[in-house]
Design goal:
Shape: elongated
Number of helices: 4
Distance between the termini: 53 Å
Length: 89
């Protein structure tokens, strides 16, 4: 039962963290405007995800949910950065 709960919580927090940037990405693509985007937040997020991945790996060893969270969240924010530079005026 505990393992099922751990996995359910892992799926929920992964879905939330990974999709944080998706509404902004959708809005930016739809409006073709990135004026309200803070690119420094995006770069700090990548640094934070990389540091968190390293910390989690060193502290806990390989934990599937933590690793997948930081890797896929980093990919999402890199998508936001790509959109930012595509529509930046």
């Amino acid at each position: 039962m505990i393992v099922l709960l751990e996995n359910a919580l892992g799926i929920i927090y992964n879905a939330c963290f990974i999709s944080c940037f998706w509404p902004q990405m959708y809005k930016s693509i739809r409006t073709k405007s990135v004026e309200d985007i803070s690119i420094s937040l995006c770069f700090l997020s990548i640094i934070g995800y990389a540091a968190a991945l390293g910390y989690a790996f060193l502290k806990f060893g390989f934990d599937f949910w933590l690793c997948i969270n930081y890797i896929l969240s980093g990919i999402s924010v890199m998508g936001m950065i790509a959109i930012y530079y595509k529509y930046k005026k």
